[in-house]
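fold-stage: in
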Amino acid sequence: MEKSTLMSIPWGNVITGVIAASSALLGVFFSNKSQNQRIYIQNQLEQKRKSNDIKRERVEEMYSLFLKWEKSVSVYYMYFIPAYNKHYTFEEAYSAAMESLKENKIDYDRFELILQLYLPEVMEEHINVKNCQESVMDFCAQSNHKVNGRTFNQFKLAIDGFDKASNAFKSSIVSLINSLD
């Protein structure tokens, strides 16, 4: 009797049902797999966009801090140009320059932090700017005012070097900001 019960089962229908169910499960599996891949790619793109947005904000902040610092340095050394041209003494220039530094507080530590964390690729240009700035400041140092042989032309060459290095640094930062788009 059991044999006849097994024989009476429509095996063609069962096999068709198993194939249909397997096909449906495979379809769901592949659909979920491609959906997961799409979500993964979308999340990666979203993370990259957020990372670029954060980096852009920091770079823009650093650029603004650099401009303030550059202006402060320029204002500082501008006090010494008349002193080199003998319009007033180095002591007067130094005093006025120091007063201008007190008025122009720059968060240079914040600038350095952003530079090191977000823009290590422009560190060389920054080191060049710092070296040129030190060269200019050497002409402005109180102890160097009476050094023989220092001329206005040498001072101007140091200033021009600082300006060129600053412009190169700013161009590098602008290029990096543009590359984040």
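fold-stage: in (second)
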Amino acid sequence: MNAGFLSYIILTLSLILIGFGWRAQAIGNGSGKAAAVFCLAWIVGAASDWRYGGATGTFVYVPLLALGAHAVRTSSSWKETASIASFGCLLGAVFSLVQLLETLDPLVIVLHPSLDPVLLVGLLVAAYVRMPAAQLALLSIALVVNDVYMGSLYAEWQPAALGDREFQDAWWLGAATARAATVFGVSAVRRAKAGGGRIRGWLRVRR
């Protein structure tokens, strides 16, 4: 599959899920209109290129900045915002570390070099916070940090490409991973609590 296709597939599936009653699972309390505007801004940004000095890129950072501003506006306190920002930078470092390790030693590859760091970061995002806006902001910070760092690391040999198609695929796959892990995790906890309640009731009857 060519780079960039996966992002549009997940984007389309997300809009379908939101339109057919899965809005709460996909974006929580966010509105379907806001999701549509974000996706439209993403498509326009992904189709628009820029070039400055020795770097190139797209404008997909723009909707991510808007997403981050929304997460800051809806956060409960500045401490929560600072926590998300700091953990996002940490996840960006983890993403870069996994990428570099798999480049140096192919034996550490689990699934695929382009999948392993994204799936790991998506799962860590889901483990850290459950609110969709905070999750997407956290993921955005992590991927932007990795994008800028990797671009600067190899800038001597090739121009930095910020917000390119690989970045777009990684963001949408990470977002899908984080939301799916959260939904299934919450469902598993509820089922476990319900099962525990039935077992306790059964034990009381036996006594």
